[in-house]
Design brief:
Elements (H helix, E strand, L loop, with lengths): L1 E4 L5 E6 L2 E4 L9 E5 L2 E9 L5 H11 L4 E6 L2 E9 L4 H19 L1
Antiparallel strand pairs: 1-2, 2-3, 3-4, 4-5, 5-7, 6-7
Length: about 110
């Protein structure tokens, strides 16, 4: 996975075989985008205690919609929504997990 950096050398996404991940695609910086083969989905991380109010509002809105997937790992939730395409949510989560693991490794 090749990390994409902004002008301040901060990781803002990644390129990988057959896809890309962006941390934020909206002006408020609340959610990102994953593209993998012929599938796209928006995503963000959510924590009931630590998330900002705009993220909490988005989370509640997403939960009321049918087209979403939430992976809960010890209180930190990965939320995917607006998926278009045939790749499963589980496969997209694996790609995002790999990206987050690589991003964390670069920090340390």
């Amino acid at each position: 996975m090749e990390m994409v950096l902004n002008e301040y050398d901060i990781v803002v996404g990644a390129k990988f075989e057959n896809g890309t991940i962006q941390d934020y695609i909206d002006e408020a910086q609340t959610y990102g985008l994953i593209r993998y083969e012929n599938t796209t989905a928006n995503w963000f991380l959510y924590n009931a205690i630590d998330s900002a109010e705009d993220i909490k509002e988005l989370y509640n809105k997403i939960k009321s919609d049918e087209n979403h997937y939430i992976k809960d790992e010890f209180g930190e939730e990965m939320v995917l929504f607006n998926k278009k395409g045939k790749i499963s949510y589980e496969t997209l989560v694996e790609k995002i997990d790999s990206y987050l693991d690589d991003e964390l490794a670069n920090v340390y």
